[in-house]
Amino acid sequence: MYLTKEQERILEGEKGEALSKMLQLIVKIGEVNGAEKLISVNSAQIAGVSYLTVGDAIFSFFDMINKDNLKVKIPSWLNPAGMDMGRYKEMGIDSLFSKKQIQIIEEYRKLGIKDTLTCTPYLVGHEPKFGEHVAWSESSAVSMANSYFGARTNREGGPSSLASALTGLTAEYGLHLPENRKPEVLIEVDAALESFADFSVLGFWFGENQGGKIPFFRGIKQLSIEKAKSLSAAMAASGSVAMYHVEHFTPEYKKIKKEDLTETIHFTEEEKKAIYERFKEQDNIDLIAIGCPHASKKEIKMIYNVVKSKQKKSDVDIMIFTSRKVLTDIETVSIVKELTKKGIKVYADTCMVVSPVTRQNYRNIITNSSKAVFYLSKNKETNVFLDTLENILRRTLR
Ligand code: F3S
């Protein structure tokens, strides 16, 4: 791989062992993937924040970095943590977990990384620009950056996105190159897609059946940012899909030539129904979990409009997960107050998957996110069901 003189000197340790190790990681990943050079990135979104997922191993990593007092070179933000940083006691987080979680965030802060603690940086003022190279690591955010915004990022791991944050570099391969952003399969969407859950089901179905490929969706009639994030998250979870195109909506769809699309598959009502059927509610629900990816202001308002004239059943908990920026937004604050009065918990900084409380305390969870179903189902003691937000709320409100 071609390296500039400066990059070579960093690798040799001129700027310390830690930065050398960070660059080595990027170069190694680049070599494995056939990159010819390194390129600059404009931002980094870093996963590997929840103590539930990173454990104590992360502290030796921080020790290594801290030796050289490194700071990030580009705007960098964190993915959700394992708890609401202001209300972890109320969530029932134990004191060891909260102590470690606070420590992890403090370590990231020392490096100059912003504690946005969200998987939706694009909803809190960090929308990537068309064509810009970034190094993001949360899988739904990666897919949104590539597909909805037309930015360019591979699906980075926590350590590699941190390495990019500290060096301002990534290896040029994969989705950074235009030739790798072409679709491989045409999906004719014959089924009606209305709710966020419908988009999530489409994504889940595609990822499960055609994982790893880039789809071109035709027949989608509208694509709001909320619908796109549902689609992105589900596809990334079930099939590691990091990019897609939607005719008339995503910014690169016009570049697609007919001859690129050699295979056509139909997504019909039958496929849609089959996924809902598979995850159909079967037991008495004890938790409704909304906000995977983190809920937008619009979603929180939508929920409020449905619940404002109704009462929550006492045997069901309702949790909405969002970013702190959305939670404290002037338009959201009063709505959240009303939701809280109704017994609905709106938490920031965390989510149903990366926080330990959902799995520890609930056995029958329903959500409108296929990604949440995918990950929560990995715990064999938890039953997880999927439905549209409207159906879920209708059944659990009086
Ligand atoms: Fe975000 Fe957690 Fe879902 S990080 S995409 S809300 S699993």
Automatic annotation (TrEMBL):
Keyword Cell inner membrane: no
Reactions listed under catalytic activity: (R)-5-phosphomevalonate = (2E)-3-methyl-5-phosphooxypent-2-enoate + H2O
Domain Phosphomevalonate dehydratase large subunit-like: 1-393
GO MF term list: lyase activity
Iron recorded as keyword: yes
Top class in the EC scheme: lyase
Keywords: Iron, Lyase
EC number of the protein: 4.2.1.182
Record Pfam families: AcnX (PF04412)
Coiled coil: none
Self-association state and partner proteins as the record states: Heterodimer composed of a large subunit (PMDh-L) and a small subunit (PMDh-S).
PANTHER family: DUF521 DOMAIN PROTEIN (AFU_ORTHOLOGUE AFUA_6G00490)
Record's function text: Component of a hydro-lyase that catalyzes the dehydration of mevalonate 5-phosphate (MVA5P) to form trans-anhydromevalonate 5-phosphate (tAHMP). Involved in the archaeal mevalonate (MVA) pathway, which provides fundamental precursors for isoprenoid biosynthesis, such as isopentenyl diphosphate (IPP) and dimethylallyl diphosphate (DMAPP).
Family listed: Belongs to the AcnX type II large subunit family.
Protein's UniProt name: Phosphomevalonate dehydratase large subunit
Organism the protein comes from: Candidatus Heimdallarchaeum aukensis
